[in-house]
Each structure stands twice: as C-alpha cells, then as structure tokens.
Amino acid sequence: MDGGNQTIALRWFGVAGRRSRAQERDALVLARVADGDASALTELYERYAGPLFAFLYRLAGDRGTAEEILQDTLLAVWRSAGTYRSRSTVSTWLFGVARRQAHNRLRGLPPPLPAEPPDGAEVVDGLPGPEELAVGGDRVQAALARLPLAQREVVVLAFLNDLSHREIADVLGIPVGTVKSRLHHARTTLRGCLDERMA
C-alpha cells in the first residue's frame, strides 16, 4: 500500500473507530436511562436534541409543535429505553422513537404551512440542497409541506440529518428499496413544486 492510500486508510479507520466508540458510549448511556438514571437522559438530550428537533420541525412545520413532539420523544425514550436491543445505533433508534411520536401527533392533520425563513437565508434556483434544507427558506418549507408525510420524512432524514439509506430504512422500519422509491418520488414532487414557484 503506498503512502497516500495508507494515510487515507488510517484516517478512515480513525473515523470509524471514533464512531464505534461514540456508539458504544451512547449504548451505555441508554442502558443507564433504562436503569432510571435521569442524568443519562439529560446527557442523551444534550447530544441529540438539535438533530431531533431539526427533523421534527421539518415534519411538523411549526416550532411549538416540534418542541412538544421532542418532549413526547424524551418521555417515550425514558419509558422504553429498556427495549433497545442494539440492532441499530442509538441515534437511529432515537430517530425512530421521534418519528413514531411525530406520526402520533400529526396523523390526520393538514400539511404544515410554510415557515418564515431565518434572517439572511438565501434562496437559490433549482432543487434545494442539504444546506438550503437546513436553513429552511420559505420556498423549501412550502415545497416540503406539499410532500406526503412518508416522503417528507425520508427527505429530511437523508438531506438534513445525513442518514444513509440503510439507516433511514431502520428508522422507518421499511426496506431500503422503499426508501429509494420515496426519495425518487419526493424529488419529482419537489422539482414540480419549485418549477411552479419560479414560473
């Protein structure tokens, strides 16, 4: 192996090792939650509240509703931590719990209204990329609101939370092929929505 490839391999193993240690640490923290340790729940909250809130906000389209669902998620984690069986990472399991809480709250409700963009948010032509989804301009939120919830959640998990197709499948409890299909249909819908707004 030449020096360049060896450096790349060492970096990859370093990143993989850090991820593995983080996953082990998360599993230990979740086990403490299962044992009734409230400080462990606080530790999980501090680590994952941001990504979970971003996911829930994109599903709900409303800050207050997303905050309520996040609180429901924490309560569900507190009650069900003992059911975690290491078949997925703790972060994937947490997104699955948050998704179930969102579905419980949002079932039967109309799609969210567009949110106001944060100050300084730029809107660019074409399909939104991960950065634009994260910033959340009104054009993006309006387009996301037009997606069925099943498509909206795969878009948010893929582009905002940067989950792989396999991780999304684990969160949603569906086959990888279904994830790919929903992403394909979501992109088509988003493209149509954005084309309408630019016409």
TrEMBL record:
SUPFAM superfamilies noted in UniProt: Sigma2 domain of RNA polymerase sigma factors, Sigma3 and sigma4 domains of RNA polymerase sigma factors
CDD domains on file: Sigma70_r4 (cd06171)
Residue stretches making up the RNA polymerase sigma factor 70 region 4 type domain: 139-190
GO molecular function, one term: sigma factor activity
Gene3D superfamilies cross-referenced by the UniProt entry: 1.10.1740.10, Winged helix-like DNA-binding domain superfamily/Winged helix DNA-binding domain
Biological process terms in GO annotation: DNA-templated transcription initiation; response to stress
Protein name (Swiss-Prot/TrEMBL): RNA polymerase sigma factor
Organism: Streptosporangium subroseum
Organism lineage: Bacteria, Bacillati, Actinomycetota, Actinomycetes, Streptosporangiales
